[in-house]
């Protein structure tokens, strides 16, 4: 009887490393998520239904989702413009701007919230001129949008920048030779390859913004039914020992984030297939 030699991994200990990684991911990611999904049902479906009949919760979810969607939409053209400036423009201080874009990733969210509340407050450097013009930003839903724009902008820039950097310049040169105007060249040559990263960046920014807490509570005002966000209401429910209500809100945010990422991935694949089919035609 012939025995086949045991196939060896390309790297020593690869199988054990993969197994250890999967176990570790299960412990720190999947186990807490499973506990969050199962916790609301421990006291029966009645407790979940009572938690879902909370008008304050729906108002907080409406504020969180509405402000997150608006902030992510505004970040799309701003992120595209910043990525274009970093890749195509040779501006002085470009490296400093490139480093500052990642600042929301490194800066503590509480510091971000305090800084924005100071700047956009009634006596702040930006808030005071706006207040004289009759525009209030701090302690209103507009302040929430400003904070979420700051948090979500790096996702758009970092998603678009590598694609824009790898775009062959010959494509634009061919468009110019064929008589395309600068706007036509941008709309028909440059923009289509950037659509998938723009969609991906929007989804990442939106999913990040709906769960943002630290940078928002200092500038939001936190008024129930007006400027109270869902993550803050989770903390309020925990302080009231309403664990069913807190976990119900957290579960809604979790499922919404997963649905958002799944939908964005499907939309990105669809856009990519459409671009490939258009290019083949």
TrEMBL record:
Its main location: membrane. The chain crosses the membrane at residues 21-41, 61-87, 99-121, 133-157, 189-207, 246-267. The keyword NAD does not apply. Residues 61-264 form the ABC transmembrane type-1 domain. Gene3D superfamilies: MetI-like (1.10.3720.10). It is found in: Cell membrane. One of its GO terms (cellular component) is plasma membrane. SUPFAM superfamilies: MetI-like. The keyword DNA damage does not apply. Keywords: Membrane, Sulfate transport, Transmembrane, Transmembrane helix, Transport. GO terms for molecular function: ABC-type sulfate transporter activity. CDD domains: TM_PBP2. It is a multi-pass membrane protein. The complex is composed of two ATP-binding proteins (CysA), two transmembrane proteins (CysT and CysW) and a solute-binding protein (CysP). Part of the ABC transporter complex (TC 3.A.1.6.1) involved in sulfate/thiosulfate import. Belongs to the binding-protein-dependent transport system permease family. CysTW subfamily. NCBIfam families: 3a0106s02 (TIGR00969), permease_CysT (TIGR02139). PANTHER family: SULFATE TRANSPORT SYSTEM PERMEASE PROTEIN, SULFATE TRANSPORT SYSTEM PERMEASE PROTEIN CYST. This is Sulfate transport system permease protein CysT. It comes from Gluconacetobacter sacchari. The lineage of its organism: Bacteria, Pseudomonadati, Pseudomonadota, Alphaproteobacteria, Acetobacterales. The gene is cysT.
């Amino acid at each position: 009887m012939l025995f086949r030699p045991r196939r060896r991994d390309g790297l020593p200990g690869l199988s054990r490393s993969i197994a250890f990684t999967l176990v570790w991911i299960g412990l720190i990611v999947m186990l807490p998520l499973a506990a969050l999904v199962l916790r609301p049902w421990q006291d029966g479906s009645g407790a979940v239904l009572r938690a879902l009949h909370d008008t304050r919760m729906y108002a907080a979810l409406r504020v969180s989702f509405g402000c997150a969607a608006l902030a992510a939409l505004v970040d799309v053209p701003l992120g595209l413009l910043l990525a274009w400036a970093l890749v195509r423009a040779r501006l002085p201080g470009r490296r400093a701007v490139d480093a500052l874009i990642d600042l929301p990733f490194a800066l503590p969210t509480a510091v971000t919230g305090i800084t924005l509340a100071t700047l956009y407050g009634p006596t702040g450097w930006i808030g005071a001129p706006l207040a004289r013009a009759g525009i209030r930003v701090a302690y209103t839903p507009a302040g929430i949008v400003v904070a979420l724009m700051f948090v979500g902008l790096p996702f758009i820039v970092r998603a678009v920048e590598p694609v824009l950097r790898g775009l062959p310049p010959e494509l634009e040169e061919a468009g110019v030779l064929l008589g395309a105007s600068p706007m036509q060249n941008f709309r028909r040559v440059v923009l289509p390859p950037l659509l998938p990263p723009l969609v991906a960046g929007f989804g990442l920014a939106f999913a990040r913004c709906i769960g943002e807490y630290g940078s928002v509570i200092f500038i939001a005002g936190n008024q129930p039914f007006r400027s109270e966000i869902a993550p803050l209401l989770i903390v309020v429910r925990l302080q009231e020992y309403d664990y069913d209500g807190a976990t119900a809100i957290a579960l809604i945010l979790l499922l919404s984030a997963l649905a958002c990422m799944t939908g964005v991935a499907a939309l990105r694949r669809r856009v990519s297939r459409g671009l490939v089919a258009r290019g083949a035609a």
